[in-house]
Amino acid sequence: MAASDVKLVGAWVSPFVTRPRIALNLKAVEYEFLEEVIGTKSELLLKSNPVYKKIPVLLHRDRPICESLIILEYIDDTWTSGPSILPSDPYDRAIARFWGCYIEDKIFPNLGRIATSWGRDVEAIEQIKTAIEMLEKAFKDCSKGNDFFNGDQIGYLDIALGCHLGWLRALETMHGFKAMDEEKTPGLAGWAERFLAHEAVKDVDPKVGRLIEFAHEGFSSPSRTNRRACGRRFPSSSLPLRPSMQNREGERRRRAIGRGRGGPSREEDEQNRREVD
User: Fold this and answer.
1) Distance of CA 272 to the CA centre of its chain
2) Which residues contact 100 (CB under 8 A, 6 or more apart)?
3) Cα–Cα distance between 32 and 61 in angstroms, integer?
4) Could you tell me which residue ranges the GST C-terminal domain spans (predicted)?
5) In the CATH hierarchy, which fold is given to the domain comprising 90-197?
6) Bridge-partner residues for 139, per DSSP?
């Protein structure tokens, strides 16, 4: 299928956009990545997702599919020749969806609270740690001794949780806490390294250093009184940025249209990072 038949509207910084990028790579589906400028909403986005007006949106033959976990299921159902994303057994599929909902409820909302409070939200940090410990147990049950939640290949739960690893590590580095380590969560610690090294993941997962740069430029400083107002918008594509950063994001969008399996090359990514400095 030609890349023009499959398009993904998103932004590199969003873990929810990383999900379908990984799934499309896993299925070896060529696609065009349409980079949204953070802080704005394009006409295409508003037309494609008039209900929530959020990324990601998958356009398949000009028909929009919204919400990242729903997109994962659509990709799995549509391109059946590649590795299965959801388990084949109905019970195992139900369990995967259950833990997917748990990840939606517990991981990113608390990451957003940590980011926009600049590490001062102790409750959010504790909730992240508790959630990761719970997911350690889920990993043991779902993996059945294999490398991934989905067995010997990454799947639905691997992608649902793995897309947050970049932001988790960035915030751990910035604010001096550790939620996933070899002592308390050895299973997930090993899983994380294998997941990030996977061919379908490594070229589309945002690098920690670049996320830290984005956090410093994109969020209000701890002394700013509008920190909480900014925080409420953290999970969406409408995060307000300084004008200078919007200009840089616009330039990235013009240069970084995805080609096939995953958007900008490593060389382009490094060039983008140097321009932020």
Assistant:
1) 19
2) 69, 156, 157, 160
3) 12
4) 89-214
5) Glutathione S-transferase Yfyf (Class Pi); Chain A, domain 2 (1.20.1050)
6) none
Contact 273, 213 (CB under 8 A): yes
Block mean pLDDT (10 aa), the chain, length 277 = 84 97 98 94 98 98 98 98 95 98 97 94 98 98 98 98 98 96 96 98 95 84 41 40 45 44 45 39
Task: Give the N- to C-terminal CA distance of the chain in Å, as an integer.
Answer: 39
Distance (Å, whole) CA 118 – CA 222: 6
- Nearest Cα to Cα of residue 36 among 263, 275, 271, 277: 263
| Residue the block writes with tokens 């499309």 | 24
CB 255 within 8 A of CB 231: no
Topology of the domain covering 3-83+237-276: Glutaredoxin (3.40.30)
Residue 182 pairs with which residues in a beta bridge? none
> Which residues have C-beta within 8 Å of that of residue 245, sequence separation ≥ 6?
38, 39, 217, 218
